[in-house]
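We were asked to recover a plausible sequence for a given structure. The inputs and outputs are reproduced exactly as logged, with field labels preserved.

PROBLEM: sequence recovery
POSITIONS: 89
GIVEN STRUCTURE:
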């Protein structure tokens, strides 16, 4: 699932991809979260001339970390945004 944030001008500061990888051989599996910078200087900072860093950020939540509050919160937020088609793509 991918969620693209947008402000009122249609700028996309970032896209969040949440992907659950099914467990293999009884392992716990993992949740992979990728945050990709969008087409806005907002990603680099609030200043007009803030540097733009196009490097995606990856989070791999595995094993005991899979079930942390952070993983639960990310899944909850993704579910909520997925139910709001006017906000999520």
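RECOVERED SEQUENCE:
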């Amino acid at each position: 699932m991918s969620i693209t944030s947008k402000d009122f001008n249609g700028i996309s500061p970032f896209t969040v991809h949440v992907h659950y990888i099914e467990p293999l051989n009884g392992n716990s599996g993992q949740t992979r979260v990728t945050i990709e910078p969008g087409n806005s200087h907002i990603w680099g900072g609030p200043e007009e001339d803030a540097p733009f860093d196009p490097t995606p950020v990856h989070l791999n939540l595995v094993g005991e970390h899979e079930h942390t509050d952070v993983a639960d919160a990310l899944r909850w937020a993704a579910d909520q945004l997925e139910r709001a088609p006017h906000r999520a793509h």
